[in-house]
Each structure stands twice: as C-alpha cells, then as structure tokens.
Design goal:
The complex is a heterodimer. By secondary structure, chain A is an alpha/beta fold. In chain A, 36% of the residues lie in helices and 20% in strands. In chain A, strand 2 (28-32) and strand 3 form a beta hairpin. In chain A, helix 4 crosses helix 5 (129-138). Chain B has helices at 38-48, 61-73, 113-127, 147-157, 168-176, 186-193, 200-213, 251-264, 269-284, 294-300, and strands at residues 2-6, 10-17, 30-36, 53-60, 77-83, 88-95, 100-105, 132-136, 161-167, 181-185, 217-222, 226-231, 234-239, 305-308. The chains are: A alpha/beta, B alpha/beta.
Chain lengths: 143, 310
C-alpha cells in the first residue's frame, strides 16, 4: 500500500480535481469527508464521461473521432461543477490487512489502476496495481 | 499519530571535500543526496525510531517526487499539495580538513493562494488523526510569514501538542500562538535585532521571556555542540562528544525527533534530554542523515553530558 492520502472533498470543483490528478500524475483520487471517510472516487474516466456523455462508449472505437472544440467547451463548463455530481459513489474499498493477491485480483478484474485502502472506514492509503504486481512477483515463496 | 509540517521541503545535497575554498574547482570525496526540510527529516527519524507518522506541506517537480518517494520508502503517510515549479535543492559543502560546513539554500517554489487554501483544508482534516504536531523550517515564496501562528492556533484548538523549530519572523509568529515546545533559533533574528545571545545568561533570559509568553518548554543551541533546555523541572546544559562528528546536517531534527519520542514515552527530564541529544549525536556520526537504530541511540545516552544549571 502506498500511504498517500491525496484526496478531495465532494464540494470541490472538477477543475480542482483535474489539477490534482495532473499534478500528482494519478488517474483517480478518493473523495472524502471531513474525517477522511471515503465517500466516492473521481477518475479521469469519470471526467471524460461527464464531458462526452453521449459518446463515451464510442471512444473505445478507433474510427470514432470526437469534436475537440465541443469536448473542450464541455470540459470547461463541467470544471466549475462540484465533484459530487460526477464521482463514482459505489467504491470498492480495501482493508489494510487484505492480501496483496486479493487486492491485485480485484483491481485487475474491475479494470481499476488504483483503489482506496481504509481502516475503520478512514482512508489510510492507496493500493496500486503495478506496485502490487511487482511485490507479488518478488515476494518469497514462504510468505 | 504524529504529524509533521514542512512548508518548504528540499533535496539536500552534501558534498565532502578534502579542502574547500572559494574560486577553485573541486572533486568531491563523497556525496550524499537525501530528502530534506525540518519536518521531513523529523518524519524520517521518527520512522527510524519506530513511530508511525504523517508528513504534509508542498512539493513540486522532480525533486518533489524524489522527496515523496523517500518518505514512502519509510512507510510514512504523505498528504502534500503539489504546486508548479521545483522543490528546492540545498547544497552543503563539507571541508573535511577544517571540519567546516558551507551551505546554500534555494528559496523554493512559489505557492499560489489556492494551493495554500487546499493545504489548510488538508491540515485541519489531518489534525483529526494526529495527537502531536511538529512544524518547522523556512517558508516558500507566497506563504505568509505569520502562517505558523495560524497552524499552531488551529492545532491547539483541537487539543494537540505542538512542537516548533523555526527562525526569524516565522518563529516570532509561532511564539505568539504559544506552542508546547519551541526551539529558539536566534541566529537569524540576530541579524535584524543586533542581539546575539552568546552567553548562557543571555539564553536563559530568552527562555524567561518565552515562559512569560506561556511557552512551557524551550530549547536553544549553545556554541557548536551544546543545547540548553528549559523544562518545567529546571534549566539544563547538554553536550555531545565532538570528537567523532562527521556531519552536523540533520542533527537538529534528530534532536527534535528524539525529544518528541521522549515526550511520547514520558521519560524523566534528564533521560528525555539524554535521549534527544543521543539521537542528535548518533546522526552526526555518519554521512547519511538520520539514525541507524534505536539501539545505536541508546548506546550513546551515557556519553551525553547533562548539567542542571537552575
């Protein structure tokens, strides 16, 4: 687990969330309350989906070319909205004592890159897919 | 949990030269790179002594990532606000012949108002998880010089103990908020006030002023290798053995970390001082900042000379 508590509250703006994602070079951050309880998760994907609501599913198709101007204008518009409007509410949370294998498998199965780790519901860090895989690879056979 | 605040972290680069003088070209015998800034150093030493802690402040650029990664290696919880620019680099040149140290500190990245606001929101949230706060070091451009007053007041309102190690204007602002423990670094203020307390009487007078302000415990450096502590039970002068000193970089923070541990473990005043000084002493015995182990610190406790002055 990476003991980083970078997070955002749901009343902050999408613009601020984008700035944090860019500066911390992460794809998503937990949304927390005043006591650091995880109440949601906001990712790049949630933000792109919010900016291209009707076309998000077509983005996987290489023949689909979204209109840059429209995307930019919509992104600027939603950047003033609150995080609560676009965050994922139903978040898979990991416990501090969950095994590396369980956490890695959950992340892979759901297509998550990172996910929040909690203790008594309070954010204590982030599980990261590549770090976990690396650790499983180098872990001794006895453990 | 212990929370450390470093508003202006750094990457410390220490170069060891056989002999150094200005205007020449040198090749270093040894180089040591490490994450730095007072709170960062305290965090790392607390972790080395087995104490869980969290670090927060501002980071920027590649240096910021290096500092964050170093903290992660020690399993320290991080909650930094990232800003544009680059976390500063501090360069220290150690002349091994004369055992003299020359330092150059960068100012650090500019912290915009919105980043400061985000930090303050995070700080209040982290206070809920902390029982003791350490605040120390210089301030980067953009951060108000009296910010420590606000941070200490907020922590005290939440019932947290606050330890401070600052200098100049930021120390004066910190003292206004009456922290639990303050390290009085008078070297910088001496430039503006013209008053350099070189004698023990001068230092004790400074302590009296701090106590009158409501600060119960104080500490100040005396000459190169000594510290004067003013605690509820008396005033003490403590000194380390100067023969085996390799590098003084980070020794002040080792002292603070040791003092925090002593407080956490309810040590008697003399043991508390010995433990803190032994942490500093152990830190000075090698090039790398920090302490090798708690055992190594405890082995040095008996070598610390402690005299009760009052």
């Amino acid at each position: 687990m990476d003991r980083d508590l970078t997070s955002i509250t749901q009343d902050r703006s999408i613009g601020e969330a984008i700035e944090i994602l860019a500066r911390h070079r992460v794809t998503g951050i937990p949304v927390v309350d005043e006591e650091l309880r995880v109440v949601g998760f906001i990712s790049e994907k949630d933000i792109v989906r919010a900016a291209l609501p009707g076309y998000f599913d077509y983005l996987q198709d290489t023949s689909f070319i979204p209109d840059f101007g429209q995307f930019q204008s919509k992104l600027r518009q939603i950047s003033r909205h609150e995080v609560s409007k676009y965050m994922t509410n139903d978040v898979d949370l990991f416990e501090e004592d969950d095994s590396d294998f369980t956490v890695a498998m959950t992340l892979v199965q759901h297509g998550y890159i990172r996910g929040p780790v909690v203790k008594d519901g309070i954010l204590v860090g982030m599980a990261n897919r590549s770090s976990l895989l690396g650790r499983i690879l180098t872990e001794s056979d006895e453990t | 949990m212990i929370l450390t605040v470093t508003m202006n972290p750094a990457v410390d680069e220490e170069y060891f030269l056989p002999e150094f003088h200005v205007g020449s070209w040198f090749r270093a015998n040894k180089v040591d790179h490490s994450a730095g800034g007072k709170g960062i150093n305290v965090s790392i030493i607390l972790a080395q002594l087995g104490y869980e802690n969290a670090a927060m402040g501002f980071l920027a650029g590649y240096n910021g990532e290096y500092v964050r990664d170093e903290l992660r290696k020690h399993q320290i919880t991080t909650n930094f606000v990232h800003v544009s620019g680059e976390t500063r680099t501090n360069v220290f040149i150690v002349d091994e012949t004369g055992n003299l140290e020359t330092g150059i500190a960068e100012p650090g990245p500019y912290v915009p108002e919105e980043a400061l606001e985000r930090f303050l929101v995070n700080y209040k949230r982290m206070l809920g998880r902390a029982n003791l706060v350490f605040i120390g070091g210089s301030l980067p451009p953009g951060v108000p010089q009296d910010i420590y007053r606000e941070l200490i007041t907020t922590a005290k309102e939440e019932g947290k103990e606050v330890f401070v190690d600052a200098a100049g204007v930021s120390l004066a602002a910190a003292l206004d908020a009456r922290p639990t423990f303050a390290k009085l670094d008078y070297r910088h203020s001496a430039r503006s006030t013209g008053f350099l307390p070189t004698s023990l009487d001068n230092i004790i007078e400074l302590f009296r002023e701090a106590h009158a302000q409501g600060i119960k415990c104080c500490l100040a450096s005396y000459r190169c290798y000594g510290e004067v502590f003013s605690l509820p039970g008396g005033v003490y002068l403590a000194e380390i053995d100067r023969e085996k000193v390799v590098s003084m970089l980070g020794a002040g923070e080792a002292l603070m970390a040791g003092f925090i541990v002593g407080k956490k473990e309810n040590m008697s005043e003399e043991d508390h001082i010995r433990f803190a000084m032994a942490c500093a002493c152990e830190d000075t015995r090698h090039v790398e900042k920090g302490v090798y182990s708690r055992k190594a610190v405890e082995e040095l406790m008996s070598s610390i000379q402690v005299d009760k002055l009052e």
